[in-house]
Design brief:
Layout (H helix, E strand, L loop, with lengths): L2 H17 L4 H6 L1 E2 L2 H13 L2 H5 L1 E5 L3 E3 L32 E3 L1 E4 L2 E4 H7 L5 H23 L22 H8 L4 E2 L8 E3 L15 H11 L3 H4 L4 E5 L9 E3 L15 E7 L2 E5 L8 E5 L3 E6 L4 E7 L4 E14 L5 E4 L2 E3 L11
Parallel strand pairs: 2-14, 7-17, 8-18, 9-12
Antiparallel strand pairs: 1-15, 3-4, 5-16, 6-16, 9-13, 10-11, 11-12, 13-17, 14-16, 15-16
Helix pairs in contact: 3-6
Length: 353
Amino acid sequence: MRNNTKKLFTGYVDRIAQLNNVAAEDVKEGFSVEPTAEQKLVDKITLSSDFLQRINVISVTNQIGERIGLSVANAIASTTDTDGKERETKSISQLDSRKYHCESVNFDTHISYQLLDQWAKFPDFQTRLAKQTQKTIGLNLIMMGFNGTSRSENSDLSRNKLLQDVKKGFLQKIREEAPLKVMDGKNSENKIKVGKGQGTGEDAKGYENLDALVFDATNKIIAEEYADDTELVVICGRNILADKYFQMINKTNQPTEELAGQVILSQKQIGGLKAIRVPYFPANSMLITRLDNLSIYLQEGSLRRAIINNPKRNRIEDFISKNIDFIVENYDCAALIENIVFEDKAVADTSEH
């Protein structure tokens, strides 16, 4: 690390210490992030991704508790003959016995001296360094949310490159807690076939097209009170629709490196619903829901951090941990479709020989 870079890095550490009311030495040894600084970091992580801004990123007090039940409204209108009975209120959120459990997840990163030396020439050195960390954490939250299937005591990134073993995500919660909300083709070769002829005939087990599949899932799996919700979308894996049908939702001339966490909107609907693409969503799957039916819970006061200059590895190391959980607020407003394959039905040869 060059001397000028070292001065800039020291200034970065001093600034973090100042924001958290600790000494610079404490930043190197590890500290609990101050509540105000913690919330600012969470806000910046959320702002780093268009998708995170469209779902709920919620701070909760307790590590374990009942889910908040935000976003998806219930039917509350009623009539009452008050001569015979009292009026009764109804909850404005969908509460049940399901609980959240925020568990510690590490977001440990490093940046080489070589890269720091390159960044040192920019006047926004501190901002650049902070944004890189925020964007990386944001993308990892999305990756876990759609791919997490288990929690290992010691996760193995070499075997689980999509963070499958760090924390159970949205889709796994649906599979385990609401299996009736899942279409996965288990009754038909573990495939949901979409293609010409798949939806016709007495033995039909598939669908002629994606529109028919989404329409069927919406009508059979999404609860009646949510089936007509205009906020419903269908999140698609990359193999579901061709790239030509999608356009990036972004600001004019937004740098390419800032688009990784963006939502991509389809130019066509599927089964009457807006189709979108989101980073790291399983390639051959679809999820029908409202985006604000998905929540990431973050426990307040659980953020720990240490920033170390490690000359033995020619890099700086940033150790961050936070207690988190992924929640689908209302399973009645969700339908997960998996194992989709595109395959035309074979036509029997009826020609005479």
